[in-house]
Design a protein that fits this description.
It is built from 3 helices and 2 strands, in the order ββααα.
Length: 130
């Protein structure tokens, strides 16, 4: 087969390749990867080492998190996550007691604010009198 200005087409294994496209390509019919030692350089070795270290680090971190998760209480068993001594949702009496506690705290804070306002008025009167 001679190469002329036309493009010759090679039909092999149901692949149509123009001859110009395969002049510099060596067709290898074996399905193996040929790797020569001259193809490996420092950059390739460093890249492989970084990828392996990242994979090992990810694996051990994942295993550590799994072990840690095994120690945590199981979800959905009715125990409130923040305070394991109480149940969730709280009972009606517990809710009422918590609500009363919050209301009492607000009342104490309101009284403190009112006292501070009165003291501030007294201090202003003393400052403006002098």
């Amino acid at each position: 087969m001679g190469l002329s200005k036309e493009i010759c087409v090679i039909k092999s294994n149901n692949i149509n390749l123009p001859v110009k496209a395969i002049i510099n390509i060596r067709l290898d019919t074996s399905n193996s990867i040929n790797l020569n030692l001259r193809d490996i350089n420092i950059k390739t070795i460093v890249t492989i080492a970084v990828v392996l270290c990242s994979a090992f680090g990810f694996y051990y971190k994942l295993m550590g998190e799994i072990e840690e998760a095994k120690l945590l209480p199981k979800t959905g068993n009715g125990v409130y996550a923040v305070d394991p001594k109480t149940t969730w949702p709280p009972s009606r009496n517990e809710y009422k007691m918590r609500d009363d506690l919050q209301v009492n705290k607000i009342k104490v804070l309101e009284n403190d604010v009112n006292e501070l306002k009165e003291e501030l008025k007294e201090l202003r009167e003393k400052v403006y009198e002098n």
